[in-house]
Please model this.
Amino acid sequence: IASRFGLNAPQIMTAIPMLVAGLLAWSIPEPKIHSESESRRYLDIIKQGFHEIRTNPIIRTLAIDSVVVSSAAYFVVWFYQPLMKTLSIPIMYFGLAHAFLLLSEIVVSSNFTKLEKIIGSGKVYLRNSALLVTVSFILAAVIPNLITLIIFILVGGGIGYTRSTYISSIANKHIQSSHRATVLSSIGMVRRLALVPLNPAIGYAAGYSLPLAFIIISLFPLSSLLIKEEV
Model:
């Protein structure tokens, strides 16, 4: 669509499913409220979540790992297109690349048990998967070609993006059931806050040199090597 009708066409086409979703949402009946529920202040919920992260060493380690490595994986979505452009790949294949990225995430998140048998479980999985993400960025920066592009998308995106899901499953074992949603939500908030300064900084680096930006991002996942607690 973009190659034939221009870059604005996909944006306009996106409005169609959103419109359908909006109409469906309006058609859903409101559930009847039988009793008043106690509502808590959002600030109190956030404080409780950060208290758990601060006082629980395992959760703190998992939170830091999740924030740093997920931040690296986040840039796969932003940089696979400039990389494809550098390789002179037609824009009509950009959507196919994104489809492969989503498919790789589905495959990885559905086969954590099998992957654990290959690259280890718990702390070992976190370390090895982080190293794979690092390698995918370095290869794309140093040897940009079709093969390293595929590795970048499938490994950097597929494994990198799904680590937060894996970390959540581990964290659930170390959080009281009544606090799980609060703590995981707090970790997610920190992950997004980290991207606020990273987006312009990495964007500036990419404007200067795309390989340089890749190398800088490749250093983020190495923080997983500092994990000492058994998770």
User: Anything to note?
Assistant: The CA atoms of residues 42 and 81 lie 38 Å apart. The first helix runs from residue 2 to 5. The radius of gyration is 20 Å. The chain has a mean pLDDT of 84.
